[in-house]
Amino acid sequence: MSSFFGRLTRHFASTSTVGVTSAGGGSSSALPANTELATVAAGCFWGVEHVYRKHFNDKGLIDARVGYIGGDKANPSYSKVCGGGTGHAEALQITFDPSKVSYRTLIEFLYRIHDPTTLNRQGADAGTQYRSAIFYHSEEQKRVAEDVTSMANQNWWGNKITTVIIGASEWWDAEKYHQRYLEHNPGGYECPTHYVRTFKLPEGYPAEEDPKPAEAGEPKAEL
C-alpha cells in the first residue's frame, strides 16, 4: 500500500465497521490514577500501535489509541489527514504505568521500531502525516526525549535522525475502525520498517537516572 487511495481501498475491503467518524479529543478525559501519557509518531499508525501493544502488553501499557496530532484543523478525518491538508501526523497515544515501564524505555523503543532517518516517510508511505515525531507532555518528558534521541542518533542511526521533538497539542482519536486495526485484520497492511531492531544501549547510558515515579499519595507533575 504505497498510496492514500490504496490504503482506503484496504479499509473498505477488510473491515465491517467503516464509516465511524473521528471521536475527537481523545485525551480530554481524566487519566487513571498513577498513569502518564506518551505520544509518538512513526509512520502508519496501525503498525506502531500493534508493535507497542505486542511488546508492552502486561508490562505497563494500560491503553493505546491511534489518532491525529500536530495539525491546525479541528476534528480531522482520516481522508483529510492523508490528503496532507490538516498538518496532522498519524500518531499513537499510550497510557502507561510509570512504576512498570519508564517513559525513557518507551522512547528508546520508538527508535527500535521504525526508520527515523527518512524525512516525512516510512517505507513507501510518504507525506508529512508519516513524519517521525515525539510529542512531549511535560518538561521532564522533553528532557528524556532529547537525551534518548541524542543517544540513538549517535549510536544507532549514524547521526541521521530527523525526528521532531515538540510539545503535545490537541489530540484527536482516529476513526473506530483504525483502533487495533491489525488485531481485527491480521492480513492487513504493515509498513516494512515497523519491526523491533536489536540495538544495544551504550555503556554508561543514561548518564543520570530518571527520577523514580512518585510514591502513592505523592503529587505528580501535571502533564
How are the elements arranged and paired?
Elements: H1 4-14, E1 36-42, H2 45-56, E2 61-69, H3 78-82, E3 89-96, H4 103-113, E4 121-122, E5 125-126, E6 132-136, H5 139-155, E7 164-167, E8 172-173, H6 181-184
Parallel strand pairs: 6-7
Antiparallel strand pairs: 1-3, 1-6, 2-3, 2-8, 4-5
Helix pairs in contact: 4-5
Order of helices and strands: HEHEHEHEEEHEEH
State the major sheet.
6 strands, mixed
- Level-1 CATH class name of one domain: Alpha Beta
What gross morphology would you assign?
globular
Based on the coordinates given, report the CATH architecture of one domain: 2-Layer Sandwich
Number of strands: 8
* Percent of residues in β-strands: 15-25%
Spans of at least 5 consecutive residues whose pLDDT stays below 50 are 1-6, 8-28, 214-223
SS element count, helices? 6
Question: Measured on Cα atoms, how large is the radius of gyration?
Answer: 17 Å
**Span of the ends, CA to CA:** 36 Å
Mean pLDDT: 86
And the CATH topology of one domain?
A: Peptide Methionine Sulfoxide Reductase, Chain A
The CATH homologous superfamily of one domain corresponds to: Peptide methionine sulphoxide reductase MsrA
**Portion in helices:** 25-40%
Major sheet: arrangement of strands: 7-6-1-3-2-8
